């Protein structure tokens, strides 16, 4: 009798053990939704510090859960009750908790999302329609600037504004060629390529990444040497979250003069804006690579009248003095009318303030204050122009802008210069030689309660009609798009290459996309790191397709 009871107990123990070991697989088969307690129990089993866990891990029952999720939702259209939120938020302060979180998410059937700054245009770093754990890297944001070697190690949770500030505290003759939005997180930004006011001089941000500290799907910490050049190639522009977890990037800092020249000039249709922009398309991508001149285009009313016009804002930054800039523009683009009176010589860190819409006299410490920088509330689409848009095409675009209710705008950056020196396969980011301009098209919902109000839906329809209108004037086969301006309207299918190529080739072009798929199959063959528009894994080898 005792022996029978013992055998039953052993059988029951083994049964329970086998169920617990295989729960992650079983839950996916039976479509059983995991609860946060299993993840928390797993975390506790690897830590003796329960206080630390309570300070860095949050579930929906915790008062800090919602504020922690909300604080870095940079596109506020997602700040609504219906937005799917994480089962668990982890805010690690060290790599140990990152590794444990990865292990426990895999064990208990959660997907994993990594958020460094929260600027994902489709909210994919902090929302999902499946149970997921969000790693928020805000507390891992150290920046180590090495002026002597012109490098910086930057943790994934640091924001660009903090990077620029840290550099400026040590030197005014080095900077990093990245974007002007101070709150963009470093972790994901480099993984999509990254561009800014120095792209014509030094290329993309990813071109200037020289090493990495990276955690793969098995929890191994790798660097450039140990991961190998193909893997390192993939994470610089190929959408890094498809491959693993960036812990820190090593950046190459680039030389800049102590003072750079900035200017802003507005022109309306009545002042010849159409003809100026037509010339801008050819002149600026071919001009001295020390000059970058962004444009923003708005449809707006003329004063208090009911008549509309288009205003183009020309925003220039020159890596040199006013005395050198003016002769250059007078020779290459005299029609623009840049004068000494509208030019200002400032430090590079101040130029970032100016391009973010702040006065150069604003305290540079504002770049450290993420809450002081306005958030977005919009829908965007991107395009690349390889042939100048003709005058009649520009006029069609202007008319479309004037149909809008002043919620839409265009932001246009010129390419050429250093960007044309790279092969489109140098890194996964392919938008290189031959690109004249990058277009960002956007509508905002700032005055709306959500992005689904009748007015918001009308604005989205307008944006889609603008996108269609521009089809004849932008790149073709594929129609290129920028992965850091991800757009789920392009498609999300990934069951096979034909489905995935619809969006994948637009971001990376065919050769790069296929190479990314091959690398993904090697480093994450079970496709743990996945989300809409992540690099897919196919059951059929790519060579057989």
TrEMBL record:
SUPFAM superfamilies listed in its UniProt record = FAD-binding/transporter-associated domain-like
The signal peptide, as residue positions, is: 1-24
Q: Which GO terms describe its molecular function?
A: FAD binding; oxidoreductase activity
Would the keyword Metal-binding be found if you checked this record's keyword annotation?
no
FAD-binding PCMH-type domain boundaries: 82-256
Q: Which domain of life is it from?
A: Eukaryota
Going by the UniProt record, its keywords in alphabetical order are: FAD, Flavoprotein, Glycoprotein, Signal
InterPro entries from the UniProt entry:
BBE, FAD-bd_PCMH, FAD-bd_PCMH-like_sf, FAD-bd_PCMH_sub1, FAD-bd_PCMH_sub2, Oxid_FAD_bind_N
Q: Which cofactor does it need?
A: FAD
Kindly indicate whether the keyword DNA-binding belongs to this entry. Answer: no
The entry's family comment says:
Belongs to the oxygen-dependent FAD-linked oxidoreductase family.
What is the protein name given in its UniProt record?
A: FAD-binding PCMH-type domain-containing protein
Organism whose genome encodes this protein: Lactuca saligna
